Amino acid sequence: MTTIRFRQEFFYNGPASDDQIVVNLRVFPPNGPPLSQIAILDTGAEYSLFDKALLPLLGIANMTTGVRYNVDLADEQRKVAYLHNLDIEFEGHRLNVPVGFSDDFPEGVGNVLGMNGFCDQFVFGLDHQTRMLFLTRGPLASATI
């Protein structure tokens, strides 16, 4: 049997649903203080996607200057988003993450942390019954086994 020893653990709680993994993070604009945000950890999301209301606070005047990609939703709709690399901090870890923004979603839509660029920088463990998230930075090969 393999044992993974995680370096960090914390409780999560979803304001809209007990079945959401809602986490705190900070986003660092190029100029100005960091922005405190909440986001849903979504292993079904290809990339992270943030509320477009953050764009002016991040100094991004035109979202379409990012890399265009298609967001395929669970209901088989396809939306267009644009990826921009953002510096964020999650549980004490400073990361550079590609984050999408889209005009196809209304302002006020929640932030989502997705697989590529975010989740792939961690090894996660989850005890949903107790709402505990465990994490170690880096691929499993670098985790204590």
Description:
By secondary structure, the chain is mainly beta. It is built from no helices and ten strands. Strands 2, 3, 4, 5, 6, 7 and 8 form a seven-stranded mixed sheet that branches. The N and C termini lie close together (10 Å).
Helix-strand layout with pairing:
Elements: E1 8-11, E2 22-28, E3 35-41, E4 48-49, E5 67-72, E6 78-90, E7 93-101, E8 111-113, E9 122-127, E10 132-137
Parallel strand pairs: 3-8, 4-7
Antiparallel strand pairs: 1-10, 2-3, 2-6, 5-6, 6-7, 9-10
Key phrases:
Cathepsin D, subunit A, domain 1, 145 residues, mainly beta, 10 strands
Named CATH topology: Cathepsin D, subunit A, domain 1
Q: Which CATH first-tier class would you pick?
A: Mainly Beta
Uncertain regions: pLDDT < 50 for 5+ in a row?
A: 141-145
Instruction: Using the CA coordinates, give the radius of gyration.
Output: 16 Å
The CA-CA distance between the termini, in Å, is: 10 Å
The average pLDDT is: 85
> Which geometry do the CA atoms define?
globular
Describe this structure in a few short sentences.
By secondary structure, this protein is an all-beta fold. It has strands at 8-11, 22-28, 35-41, 48-49, 67-72, 78-90, 93-101, 111-113, 122-127, 132-137. It contains no helices and 10 strands.
